[in-house]
């Protein structure tokens, strides 16, 4: 199962790079906010279709609505991410946008692990993680340089 999870994560990473490139062009074509709205409509349709296929019911939506509101931050974060990459990818390029995004994402992930935020297991921060973050920060800064 770990190998399958790793492969799925790699596929999601590839999809993320494709998404930011495509959304950047889409935003240039129709505007950032309309592109965001349309992408989220497509996501909603796909999500509902998958829910119906998996559960044969929309009860999962009611379960989500009854969940603590702070859990909705995931949806808000997703919309913010799509908005941001739609806006900045044409300006920074796919490589720099991805580099900065990943560096920030991994830095926040270390904080989440260290303090066990959002109910996750606490994982310490050793020198290897600090060094990794420092190297990521340097790498992210280097992605801003154009050839």
Major sheet: none
Helix count from the secondary structure assignment: 6
Average of the residue pLDDT scores: 93
Question: Structural class, please?
Answer: mainly alpha
Instruction: Tell me the span between the first and last alpha carbons.
Output: 41 Å
Structural description of this entry:
This protein has 6 helices and no strands. It has helices at 2-30, 32-55, 59-66, 73-92, 94-115, 127-143. The longest helix is centred in the first third of the chain and has 29 residues, at 2-30. By secondary structure, it is mainly α. It folds into 2 domains: 1-92, no CATH class; 94-147. 82% of the residues lie in helices and 0% in strands. The model has no long low-confidence stretch (mean pLDDT 93).
Short description:
The chain has 147 residues and is mostly helical.
Show the helix and strand layout.
Layout: H1 2-30, H2 32-55, H3 59-66, H4 73-92, H5 94-115, H6 127-143
Features:
6 helices; single chain; mainly alpha; 147 residues; 2 domains; 82% helix
